[in-house]
Amino acid sequence: SQQGEEDPQALSIQEGENATMNCSYKTSINNLQWYRQNSGRGLVHLILIRSNEREKHSGRLRVTLDTSKKSSSLLITASRAADTASYFCATDPNDYKLSFGAGTTVTVRA
Amino acid sequence: NAGVTQTPKFQVLKTGQSMTLQCAQDMNHNSMYWYRQDPGMGLRLIYYSASEGTTDKGEVPNGYNVSRLNKREFSLRLESAAPSQTSVYFCASSEALGTGYTFGSGTRLTVV
Asked: From residue B30, how far is each of A56, B6, B50 by CA, in Å?
């Protein structure tokens, strides 16, 4: 069963705008990871945030983690056409069973 | 380029046929994984290998077998393919527990 659930399922924004997507999960985790998947391709690891961290940045990406609410958010700032992809959160309970949500499909309009 | 290589990229099987999906990584990662991706369901773990010489079941292992041939290679076998196994299969590897995964580009399998 899926541990994480992303919200919204789909998001359409104008180039230059920010995109925010959320992930909720059910059980305790060691870390939470975000991945990007371009159409027809494999997943690419974007960022990992550990359970004792609250916020992490990587380039135009900002991830937050609230373990008390069992939720995370991924913010992409100043979006570009190349950011058009599906984004997945994955929860790591520290047992080799990384569990993925169904993903958020982001479309960036020129 | 370093990474995870999967073969084949596409395959069509008839119900009841068998096949093996191959996966190799050249990053000296200890752990390897097989996932399947179906529309609207995200990725589901089929089998994983925490280290060379070990394999364990994931969420959806029925109908599959795996072999961790050596540290580099982890294969997935369908002994008697069924239409329900139509999916995109991804192999991944990670350096250690609690680290990010590197994924292959996938195998699109259709069982008719």
From this structure: 26, 17, 7
The predicted structure's pLDDT at residue A57: 97
Nearest-CB residue to A33 (from B33, B42, B100):
B100
User: Given the DSSP bridges, would you call strands A104-109 and A85-92 parallel, antiparallel or unpaired?
Assistant: antiparallel
What whole-number distance in Å separates Cα of residue A19 and Cα of residue A98? 25
Question: Per-residue pLDDT for A49 more than 70?
Answer: yes
CA distance B19 to B85: 12
Cβ contacts from A onto B, under 8 A? 59
Give residue-wise pLDDT tens across range B58-82: 999 999 999 999 999 999 999 999 9
Residues from chain B contacting residue A2 (CB–CB below 8 Å): 41-42
Tokens of A13: 């924004």
Nearest by CB to residue A98, choosing from B40, B101, B102, is B101
**Closest-CA residue of chain A to B43:** A100
Judge whether A25 is closer than 8 Å to chain B, CB to CB. Answer: no
* Cis ω before A8 (30° cut-off from 0): yes
Q: Is B45 exposed, middle or buried (0-12, 13-18, 19+ CB in 10 A)?
A: buried
